[in-house]
Amino acid sequence: MTASKDQLYRPGESELSLWLQPEQDDWLLLQQYSASAPEVLARFTNHAAALAAQQQVLAARLADGFLQADTAIPAVHTETDSKSTTSPDPRRTSQQAELETHLIKDLHADAWRLLSARQRTRLVWRIGEVRAAAAVPRLIELLGSEKTKHGLLDYCIAWALGRCHDRGAMAALDELSRCATHPAAQRIARDAWLALANASERSQWAERQIADWALPLREAWQQQDIATLQARLSAPTEWDQALLRQPYGDWLEEFDRVSLSANWARPLLLQALSTLPLLGGTFRAARHIYKAAELRGDAAVWSLLQRRFEQTPAQFTRSHATQWVAFDNEWLRSNEELPRNNSRLAYSNRTRAYLVRRGWRYLRRLAVQGSAEFVPLAAAALLQYDDARTDLSGYTQHNASVFEQGRWQMQTRYCHPFSRSMLLNHLLLKASGSIHCGRNSELWWSATPWHGELTQQPVPFAAMWAERPDALLHLLLTSRAELVHAFAAPLLLSTDGEPTRPQQMYLQQLDEHYWARLLNSPMAVTAEAAMRWILPKVSSDNSQHWLALLLASRHPAVAQAGLTILEQNPQAATGSLATLSAVVLARTPEVRRFGRVLCQIAASQSALLTALLAQLLSELRLRDQHSFALAEICENLSWVLANPLIQTLTTDVYPEFLALLQHTAQPIVLLAAGALLHYPAQNCPATAYQRLLSSPEPEIQAAGVRLLAALPTDVLLTQSSMLLNFCLSDAAQVRQAAQQALQQIAPSLPANALAPLFDALFRAESSEGLHADLLTLLTATLAEFMHLRADQATMLRLLLARSRGAQAYGSWLLQQSQDHEVALSDWSRLARHEALAVRQRAMQVLDTNWPQIGVYGVLPVLLSRWPDTRQQALGWLRERVDPDAWSPESMIALCDNEYPEVRALGCDLLQQRLAQHRNQDCLLALAAHPSLQVQRFVASWLAQVLDAGESAAYDVQQESPQATYLQLAEYRHFLLTVLSQVNRGRAAKQALFKLLSALSLQSESLAQEVASLYQRLVLTVAIADKAQYIAALAKIRQHYPHIETGLQICPPTHRQSEHRQPVRGVA
């Protein structure tokens, strides 16, 4: 079984539930915010201790600004105390007595005969409203006196009998509930009978009703299966009438009646009514429950439904009785559909307007006759308003055109969030002065902005509210609407009244925790009103506990008022435990700063500081992650513990800090971990380290690492691998804490201990800043420890890695190294490094060691993607290397480079060699190069080698056609590659085409080779080049007719126009 939950709320945050739950032989104290999972606050073996802890936590949450709907309020101990709404009102003024006498007089037979049917029902209803118990005998006589099809008189009589609280009418009501001709009269008679019945009679009646329920419902009720009942109540659309044997609406009405004898079921009903759709099939039940709640004065149900009627739009608009309404692709006549038991239509605009007006009319009549029911019902209605669910989006303004002074004018209207609520505005405002209401009170607005306007207006029914300060206090402690607070705070906490006023007398008897809740109310208007009431007490009584309440407020204005008083006489506060605790745990920064000064002044009072520490830890245990300014408070407390209260950190409070490590709030755990640093770390149990180091929260894990770092060096060395893992954590806080710990044991670490850190530099960052922190650790924190640095091989791996972090650490290591410690071949590789400093140093080393490196040492530098490095290397090669010193392989390597300036150098060198008739075989090696520049170069020189008609650089006339044919065959792949290119290499292609066309006319063998090339090109090249190859093939065929060219020449055909047949009907 789960105990009942305390439901708390603070504006702008999730709702909070607090409850006790049994688990085997223990009791768990749990809390849950609506947006998170339940969390265990404590475990108890004793139920009484668990209840006490629950009350302490509840008080702490309420003092922190949370609101509780069902909070306990001290009763008003005056002779005018109001009784329960289920008993007759004992306050009878002469006006009320005269009204009752007048109404009862009209019940006499002579007067009764003269009344119309409408007047009779109205008379009986009025008797019920004033609870005229003397009229009960006459009303019983009138039961069944009028036989009408609607049974309205019997309905009104049953309602009045239930209101008059005369148990002598129970028999008549019971008979009427069974024998009335109209179902409405039967229903209201049953509700009236239940209103008069005692607890035993209600329970017996409920048992008989539950026995007729379907088995699933009956078992769920008997076993108090809240989950099953809640699921049934909240899902009317999934109701299985065949299985459960009655409509959902009928069962909901029965549930309302039987729950009167079971308090545990009432919250289920309220929750179901808060989400019940006001549609056909469910609205009728909601309306019946609403009227039953009105009969028995059930403020919770009545106010909830009244607010639902205000907020829920009508299902359809009905302007006349026989109106047709479109529903689910069907047209329904409203006067035929609405009376049906399974009507699909319900809750029209006229019904909604009637119910909204009925609620206000009901309260107004209670107030006019001075009934004690007015204040409880009105307070319950006001509690239904929530700033999170408003009619309008906050305070708004709009312009309206009004006809004034004979012309139309624009008027600015200011609306508050509930300006469309008829009930709230009638209860809080009067349409006078700058406040106006529209037609039918549908909209209320002000001619001036609303801020401060409400407190300056006359309060409706102020005298009745003044007699019930407990109701006003209940509003201030539970209401979620700022307007309600602005209404109730001046009424209850006004400081301009006489001491004998009921409010003043009531406030004098309030406990301190109520004032703490008022001063920390989520609404500033309530906190400031409470402050104004307390300030005279602080000044006159010089009471430190009142001052502590002001200083602990979450509202800056309230805390500042207390701080002003404190600054006038700080010495008096240094001896007050309550004041010192309040300033240290204050929710405003100004008070916390002054609290540090007070603690320093009180540093000589060791006994007081010891008690202060115990008080601080006791209050801190009751707070949670959502407590107001908890992180700032814990930070301030950490400073106080480390300075004025350092002397109080004895072994006696050491277990207290260990216990705080189990707290659910992160700032409190961090505070406890920081406090443990003031004790020998070896005394801390292993479970504490495990709790901190295994936490998913980075801040808590970092605190555990700092606590671990406080261990002696020999002990810390055994955990070096753990520290290295923490140095690689994704959380920056953990990494920084681990680096500080690692510095302590660095002298004793082996040479290869940091290998995991080097490996992490090669990998991509798992979290932002990881490589930066590792670089700080390796290049600053551990820079002095030479044995921990990476070796030369690892340094080169780091420099040549893709990771920027690895390159940065490699660059730092290179700065610490001498030139001779790195091989020249490695310097050639480093000349291509991304870091400018590394490249510059590498080029400097290569320049210094030029005789040793030579051409082959510089060639790798030409692969660098940095232009400045390539240009410097090319300058060396042009200036320092003789053209004859180049080997063919080196020249080919230059021509094969990806950068054009390097290829240009290679082509220049090769051109000089070819001009000297040397290294002709280099052309064949370069023929496969993909660069256009190299292809043009090869094509140009190939033309000189093969063209028999040219005699500029190389005379080929001495060579036979057979030799030329063999050379052409060697370059066949090159020729196909160049000539097959699409939209590129136009100059090289034209040069080769011109060369091949000339060669094809010199000999038959050459013509055969060229023809085979052209035949393949005709089938593969783009259309733009195809025509010239076909023309060349035709020319070859003309010179050598017997060579197969693949051409088939066809004579052109002459097309003759076809004569069109004449169209029929056209001349």
Automatic annotation (TrEMBL):
InterPro entries linked to this entry: ARM-type_fold
Annotated region Disordered: where? 77-98
Q: Give start-end positions of Polar residues composition bias.
A: 83-98
Protein name stated in the entry? HEAT repeat domain-containing protein
User: What species was this sequence derived from?
Assistant: Chitinibacter mangrovi
The lineage, from the top, is: Bacteria, Pseudomonadati, Pseudomonadota, Betaproteobacteria, Neisseriales
